[in-house]
Amino acid sequence: MSASLQEQLQNCLLLQRAAYHADPVPTLAQRRQDLLTLQRFIRDHKEALCEAISADYGHRSRHETLLAEIFPAIDGIDQVLKHLKRWMRPQRRAVDLRNFLGASNRVIPQPLGVVGVIVPWNFPVNLSLVPLTFIFAAGNRAMVKMSENSRHLAKLLIERMPAYFPPEKLQFFDESGGVGIEFSKLPFDHLLFTGSGQTGRAVMAAAAQNLCPVTLELGGKAPAVLCADFPLRLAAERIMFVKCLNAGQICTTVDHLWMPADRVEAFVGAAREIVAARYPALSSADYTAIIDERSFDRLLNALDEAQAGGARLIPLLPGPAFERATRKINPHIVLNAPAGSQLAEREIFGPILPIRTYAKLEEVVTAINAGPRPLALYPFSYDKPTVQMLLDRVMSGGVSVNDALFHVGQHDLPFGGVGESGMGHYHGREGFDTFSKLRPVFYQARFSSLKFLMPPYGKFADRVLAFLTR
Known about the structure:
Layout: H1 3-22, H2 28-44, H3 46-57, H4 62-88, E1 91-93, E2 104-111, E3 114-118, H5 126-137, E4 141-145, H6 151-160, E5 170-173, H7 179-184, E6 190-194, H8 197-208, E7 214-217, E8 223-226, H9 232-244, E9 256-260, H10 264-278, H11 293-308, E10 312-315, E11 322-323, E12 328-329, E13 332-335, H12 342-345, E14 352-358, H13 361-369, E15 376-380, H14 384-393, E16 398-399, E17 422-423, H15 428-434, E18 436-443, H16 459-468
Parallel strand pairs: 3-4, 3-6, 4-5, 6-7, 8-9, 8-15, 9-14, 13-14, 15-16
Antiparallel strand pairs: 1-2, 2-18, 7-17, 10-13, 11-12
């Protein structure tokens, strides 16, 4: 990274911090205006955003961008606007009345200052503008670093966002080599990173030098568990929708599926019918490309490795297994992926669904708990005790019961990982709280009973303390 860009990063932070000190607690009206301005930007550039993302992918389904990025960002702002006044109110807290008659306690949510956001390539509008919704709602300013795989989108944001927000409020940065690590070294008041666990560790280590608090949204091998009582066709419809969405390049997609062995062939048959009906050919405009050559080769190598180890590869669309020219990979189900293979050990992040079988649910619980805690868990069962058992015994960042992915899109639910899948939350009230300092304030009364409990201590103090500690 050039010295000029490093200086630009530092100067932007100084500019935003000075603006924060000049106006540390924006009013409700100011925050509402920021949110409405952000929403107006999205609406004004809806088609341009879709086109930029598609250019970055090679091909990205316009409908997927509208469904998974544009709509959540616009609708999320509407939801925050409904609650913002209530979220900003000081919270009353109880006072120890034995000692402080007439005193009061408040928790006052106040802006942290300047928040850094490091955005991945897979949902770059959603994962930049949705966090900004909560950052602005909490009264902060923001610096946002885009991915190296989002060059067209970053160019659009860098060029057009200044007409909506001044640099002392919001500024975007492209990844031109080495920017990410320097960005994470800046002394932000909070840093949000979404991406891989490996990069997340590096970001957290850099932020630790400034004791900068971080929210890490990472990934992992999110399992779906299909129980014997759940309708197989319905499960296949729902699971294959999220597995093919964005060609499986989603941190909260179904990474792999657990199911009873005697239902596997029926599931495969249903999946073939469903996927072929949704995407008649690999060239379908509704089917998204793999983001880059490196990711494309990684996924093909993982399939080859699994097949060499004895796995059965089942492409779900007629025609070729992949098209290198368009970087599209035929959705696959993989049976009997060998232990230790990439498909078994690494987050897949592509349109490949390994199926693992079980005789008893206890086997599933033991296997999932033997690995890192996943970002999501997807139990499919209408039996409430079974679902509750899985909720109790398998920890994950979030859960969708009898579907997959949709807990992420619920505006009033917090989103975040646990353990190796991340830390901290945003979305909903928790998003506002994450980017606020929940500041405790004690207001002393005109008269304080502590005046009788100050040195020199005497018999009266002995009697009072004996009463209080009885």
